[in-house]
Structures are given as structure tokens and as C-alpha cells.
Amino acid sequence: MPKLYPEALAFCILWSLLAVWGWASLGVTVGLLLSVGLFLIIMPSSALILSRTSNFGLEKAVRWGILLLAALALLSAADLYA
């Protein structure tokens, strides 16, 4: 069995919870945008950073930063539409 990395597991769980929270607070469209949309943003940016710099620390910081910005945007939108 492959080794589980706690940081990667936490990232995936929080990403899933963010999508579920978006669906619960603003509808299924927002949940899908958070799920698929973040995938379309995070994966290419991670690949670009790793292919150009091979810096895993930078890739991790960018990945978590994108997730944090998405969470802040969702929090703001949920507050506006509540």
C-alpha cells in the first residue's frame, strides 16, 4: 500500500469540504465550480511550478493559497447572499 501523506490528505479533505459547503450555502452550481473549477486551476499551476522550478515548497504554498482564496471568496459570497 502506498504511503499516505498527511498534508496531501488534509488538502483533499478541505477541498472536498469547501465544495460541499459551497453547494450547501449557494447551490449545486457553486459546489461544482469549486470542485471542478479549482481542479482546472490548481493542477496546471502545480505542474507548471514543479516543471519549471522543482520547488515542492513553492508548489505547496501556491496550492494552499489558491484554496484559501477560494474559501475567502465563498465566505464573502455566502455572506452577501445570506
Descriptive report:
The chain has 82 residues and is mainly α. It has a domain at 28-81. The protein has three helices and no strands. The radius of gyration is 14 Å and the shape is globular. The mean pLDDT is 92.
Low-confidence sequence ranges:
none
Alpha-carbon distance between the two ends: 45 Å
Helix/strand order, N-terminal first: HHH
Helix content: over 70%
Query: What's the helix count?
Result: 3
Class by helix and strand content? Answer: mainly alpha
Global mean pLDDT: 92
Strand content: under 5%
Major sheet summary line: none
Assign an overall shape.
globular
Produce a short descriptive summary.
By secondary structure, the chain is an all-alpha fold. It is 89% helix and 0% strand. It has a domain at 28-81.
Describe the secondary structure blueprint for this structure.
Elements lengths: L5 H21 L1 H26 L2 H26 L1
Summary tags:
single chain; 82 residues; mainly alpha; 3 helices; 89% helix
